[in-house]
Structures are given as structure tokens and as C-alpha cells.
From TrEMBL:
Gene3D superfamilies referenced in this protein's UniProt entry, alphabetically: Rv1738 (3.30.160.240)
Native organism: Streptomyces pharetrae CZA14
Region spans: Disordered: 34-57
Source organism, top-level taxon: Bacteria
Protein name (Swiss-Prot/TrEMBL): DUF1876 domain-containing protein
Coiled coil: none
């Protein structure tokens, strides 16, 4: 079976971080081709006995924000399927 691709689409995803010596907060944003945006947040906290490694906090908080972003996109898609079809569709699983 040969799959033919017809349309190239790009999504722009941004991650921003705020951090202090113990906490990291991440904000994720994806801009979709229709102009809509989906936003999410993630957090990480460093235990007082752990070494101060800001990059690790960013990775954890960023991963949590991206995970939430993925779930919000799945929910959005599910709602759009239901709206277009006029029925309740099966849940979309990761």
C-alpha cells in the first residue's frame, strides 16, 4: 500500500520556563493552522537534598506541560469529531 501525502502543515510549539532555586514552572503553547491556540502548564520541585540542576527541572516541568498539551489536543479533537458527526464518538486514547 502506497500512502500519498498532499498537504504540508506546520505547528509552532513554544515552551517558556520560570524558575527559582527550588521550583520550575513551564508554559506550553501550540498555534494551530486555523489560528487557534492550546495552552498548558507543568511544574517541578527540587527536593532540598537534591543537587541544583535547573535543566532537570526544565525537562520535568516541560514534559508535564507537553503531556497536558497532548491531552488537551486529544480532548479538542474528540469534541470536534462529536460536533461534526452529531454523535458521541469513542474516546481517543494515547
Amino acid at each position: 500500500m502506497v500512502m500519498t501525502m498532499h498537504t504540508a502543515v506546520g505547528w509552532h510549539v513554544e515552551l517558556e520556563f520560570k524558575e527559582d532555586d527550588r521550583h520550575t514552572e513551564a508554559a506550553a503553547l501550540v498555534r494551530l493552522p486555523d489560528g487557534s491556540e492550546v495552552r498548558s502548564h507543568g511544574q517541578a520541585s527540587r527536593h532540598h537534598t537534591d543537587a541544583n540542576q535547573p535543566r532537570v527541572g526544565e525537562e520535568i516541568a516541560g514534559a508535564r506541560a507537553l503531556n497536558e498539551l497532548a491531552m488537551r489536543l486529544l480532548t479538542k479533537a474528540h469534541e470536534e469529531i462529536d460536533s461534526a458527526s452529531g454523535r458521541i464518538s469513542h474516546p481517543i486514547h494515547v
